[in-house]
């Protein structure tokens, strides 16, 4: 898993209609935060619906290393006995965050204003990703970071013994950076302010408020101005994790492009900072109905009914990127099955995800017979019309779960099978993907 174990070759073949119910796993972003905030509260936080993907399990181990008592009671059912803000103990060993950028960046934030040091590493994918975007603002609090060239892991962070509050304007639209700064601000007297010119996922703000911190969000001409009052006593919570809209996108997009499909995906988060993919699919002509809208675990959710649709290419507005940043790989597969071209601009952040996702999708789609254009910040896919993608290629997944799932979905609707060189990273975010998709009627085989 996460690039440590043996590669798992997997092949998807043109599939019959997908039918039935897709119970997708818990939200990855919220699962990480439930464990981390639980570890910083005093007392026992109870979590249901936790995603038991490797990324989140690595965060659970990290929280144990910092002194929290993290226990699994049953499937998705966990408790965290927290040590309080500023109560972390120095870990005895290196913290391995596996494949998870969210895990490592948030955890760096929450230890950076406590007088201790911790050394972080990860798998081959995570060791390539930039940490300077987090350690630069943490330095303003007084923390120091010593890593490899280019701010890469392994990296030791020395927390500030006498941290000072910070006002920081995000130079990139990143919820991980925003969250790292807010988490660091928890153990600092006074007010820490983050200005985000473009709105990014808001789970940290929502959940910190739920745990009893004072967090104010003001919409101004500069963007969202988020003010956190430091040194709160976080109160333990009962957290019901909603289902992940990013994971749901895989069965949803598969149903849209596999002829005759009709599936039901219950309880998917429709948080406005996360649902850009659904807006985009509907603009392309997708037949998706959002039934029974309600609130679950503090998040707006809906049940999705999704039917096979003939789709047209569109221009995705660049300002929508933060609300669907993880969904461009699967969108580019849908785009290849649409009529006309789909233009995705303002997407350069994709280059620093688990892989360079613009490059990974462009090379894989080209190998499958699709015409693609790209530049640093843009991906354009020339749609071939429903079911016309030739396929017949092996695509490299670069230790990236979303690239692996995207090409497997592509193979369910292409003329010849599509193979991925390594499906094992799927376990980081969607461990039951294979069984869920084959249960709906997808033709997936190992090898
Ligand atoms: C996440 C934020 C996003 C996203 C990642 C999860 C989070 O990353 O791509 O999968 O939980 O905060 P960035 O903050 O780097 O955009």
Cα separation of the termini: 16 Å
In CATH terms, what is the fold-level topology of the largest domain? UDP-n-acetylglucosamine1-carboxyvinyl-transferase, Chain
Q: Into how many domains do the coordinates divide?
A: 2
User: Could you report the average pLDDT, rounded to the nearest whole number?
Assistant: 97
How many β-strands, per DSSP? 24
Question: Percentage of helical residues?
Answer: 25-40%
Largest sheet: 4 strands, mixed
**CATH C-level of the largest domain:** Alpha Beta
Number of helical runs? 12
Secondary-structure-based class equals alpha/beta
Fourth-tier CATH superfamily name of the largest domain: Enolpyruvate transferase domain
Bound molecules: shikimate-3-phosphate
- The CATH architecture of the largest domain is Alpha-beta prism
What spatial order of strands do you see in the largest sheet?
A: 22-23-1-24
Q: What is the overall silhouette?
A: globular
Give the strand content.
Answer: 25-35%
Give the helices and strands, then pairings.
Layout: E1 10-13, E2 19-21, H1 28-40, E3 42-48, H2 54-65, E4 69-74, E5 77-83, E6 95-96, H3 101-111, E7 117-121, H4 132-141, E8 144-148, E9 152-158, E10 167-169, H5 175-185, E11 191-196, H6 203-210, E12 215-220, E13 223-229, E14 238-240, H7 245-257, E15 262-269, H8 276-283, E16 287-296, E17 299-307, E18 315-316, H9 328-336, E19 339-345, H10 357-367, E20 372-375, E21 378-384, E22 394-395, H11 401-411, E23 418-420, H12 433-440, E24 443-446
Parallel strand pairs: 2-15, 3-14, 6-7, 10-11, 18-19, 22-23
Antiparallel strand pairs: 1-23, 1-24, 3-5, 4-5, 7-9, 8-9, 11-13, 12-13, 15-17, 16-17, 19-21, 20-21
Helix pairs in contact: 1-2, 1-3, 1-6, 3-5, 4-5, 7-9, 7-11, 9-10, 9-11
């Amino acid at each position: 898993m996460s690039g440590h174990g043996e590669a798992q070759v997997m092949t998807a073949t043109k599939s019959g209609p997908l039918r039935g119910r897709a119970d997708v796993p818990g939200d990855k972003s919220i699962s990480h935060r439930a464990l981390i905030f639980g570890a910083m509260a005093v007392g026992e936080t109870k979590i249901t619906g936790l995603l038991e993907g490797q990324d989140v399990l690595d965060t659970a181990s990290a929280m144990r290393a910092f002194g929290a008592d993290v226990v699994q009671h049953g499937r998705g059912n966990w408790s965290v006995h927290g040590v309080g803000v500023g109560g972390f103990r120095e870990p005895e060993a290196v913290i391995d965050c596996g494949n998870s950028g969210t895990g490592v960046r948030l955890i760096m934030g929450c230890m950076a204003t406590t007088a201790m040091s911790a050394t972080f590493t990860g798998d081959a994918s995570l060791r390539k990703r930039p940490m300077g975007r987090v350690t630069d603002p943490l330095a303003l609090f007084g923390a120091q970071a010593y890593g490899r060239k280019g701010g890469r892991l392994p990296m030791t962070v020395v927390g500030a013994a006498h941290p000072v509050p910070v006002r920081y304007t995000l130079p990139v639209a990143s919820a991980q950076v925003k969250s790292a700064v807010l988490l660091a601000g928890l153990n600092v007297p006074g007010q820490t302010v983050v200005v985000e010119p473009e709105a990014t996922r808001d789970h940290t703000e929502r959940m910190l408020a739920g745990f009893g911190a004072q967090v104010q969000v003001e919409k101004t001409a500069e963007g969202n101005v988020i003010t956190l009052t430091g040194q709160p006593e976080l109160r333990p919570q009962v957290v019901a994790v909603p289902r992940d809209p990013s994971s749901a996108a895989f069965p949803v997009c598969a149903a849209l492009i596999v002829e005759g499909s009709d599936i039901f995906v219950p309880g998917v988060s429709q948080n406005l900072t996360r649902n850009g993919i659904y807006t985009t699919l509907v603009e392309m002509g997708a037949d998706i109905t959002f039934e029974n809208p309600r609130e679950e675990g503090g998040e707006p959710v809906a049940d999705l009914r999704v039917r096979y649709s003939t789709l047209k290419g569109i221009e995705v507005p660049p300002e929508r990127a933060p609300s669907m940043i993880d969904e461009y790989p699967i969108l580019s597969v849908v785009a290849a099955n649409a009529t006309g071209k789909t233009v995705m601009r303002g997407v350069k952040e994709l280059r620093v995800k688990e892989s360079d996702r613009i490059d990974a999708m462009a090379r894989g789609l080209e190998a499958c017979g699709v015409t693609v254009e790209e530049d640093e910040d843009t991906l354009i896919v020339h749609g071939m019309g429903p079911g016309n993608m030739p396929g017949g290629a092996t695509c490299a997944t670069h230790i990236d779960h979303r690239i692996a799932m995207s090409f497997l979905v592509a193979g369910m609707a292409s003329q010849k099978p599509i193979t991925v060189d390594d499906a094992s990273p799927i376990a980081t975010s969607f461990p039951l993907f294979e069984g869920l998709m084959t249960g709906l009627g997808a033709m997936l085989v190992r090898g």
